[in-house]
Amino acid sequence: MKSALPCSVLFLVLLFFSALPAGCSYDAGITPPGVDNFTGLAKKNAVSFVKINHSADTVIAFPKSGKLLVVNKNYSAAQLSQIDSYLASHILVVQPAVYSGAVARSTNSVRYTDYIWELQNTYQSAPGKYLGIWCDYLTPAQCLNLGFNGLFISGSVQSVNSAFFEAQSAGFIPADLLVSLGSSNSASAAGIISGSPNAGYYFIDEPFETKAFGDSISAVIPYLAGLIKSKNPGGRLLLTSYFLPYTSICNGLSALTGSNGLDSAFESLFGLDSNIYVMCDDYYSNCCAPASGYWDAFRQYYGPRNISNWMSVVINNGSAGYYEGLCSSGTSTNWASLFDRANSYGMNNIWLYAYKTGNDSLVSAFAGVAWSRGFSFRQSYYLGSEWTCSQDSSSFPGKGAWSLTDMYYIYSGLLAY
Question: Counting beta carbons within 10 angstroms of the beta carbon of residue 312, is it exposed (0 to 12), middle (13 to 18) or buried (19 or more)?
Fold first, then answer.
């Protein structure tokens, strides 16, 4: 509901327009939100956030200060340089959030308050989005701060229970945890299910490629799926594969499945229990298909049983050299393109493979891409910037002799890309 402006605010607005020198005008820039802080951050279904207005604003990395800012597209190079120099040489203080627009100081000068977002490397998962990680060099708390709300857990029953406690202490909930069941011993897998707290997801890595559980795969997997369902009716068993569903040219699976591909083998498992799903973990591009082509094939052949896929923190980061098979050069599909694929499918569940590969900088870069594709919100600081111009100046921002006189923090909040 909109409320009427107080008389004092209307007076200031009218005063500004009446006293603005002929050569000075302004553009609204980034419009501040109608609230001065954000609450309910721990509630996934009640998150307050502001979305970048890409028609007016842009994200720029500033070299001197090292800041990543959302600023008005119309800033001139001189104004951007002033912002960078100011942030590099000043420690900002906090001032109340007051949207005053431009206020005339005299008949020959004007003061204008503009607003900027300073992006932080801290994220929060977006409602309805699920971002998981398998990583051995970041703590659960660090993963949570990067926007991951899913965590991979593996090991013995004792190790799993210990990891459960650590994850919950950091802020994860059991429904968002993915527990590995191994792939060699069905009794051990059953013991993990029965001997640990309820998880939302359980995991068997590449059962057909590794010939998990020997020749008993078609019996063991439904058995484990049944145990999961009896313990936790909402629990899901996720299986991975890096083989194309429809051909054995790249897979060499004819002897294993008795068919040209894995589609019939997985379909047989799907028919045995409703909580069995498949994930693609092919990260490379090869002569059969790029990684995005594998994703398309999984979605086409497995449909609603393909609820999630994996990305690699190294192989899919956009660097050259990750190409396999008969082809000798090329680049694997990058994170951004794969997120775009997922969004086109309506796939809201993505996992990052960062176990014994990559580093914290790469995971942080991945988190930034996930934010840019709508999978998370980014913690940001809302800044005020005070500018003055003389009568011979012109439009704010971008033209004229506008001088930056002050910058300050107003509040912190969540920013959607």
Answer: buried
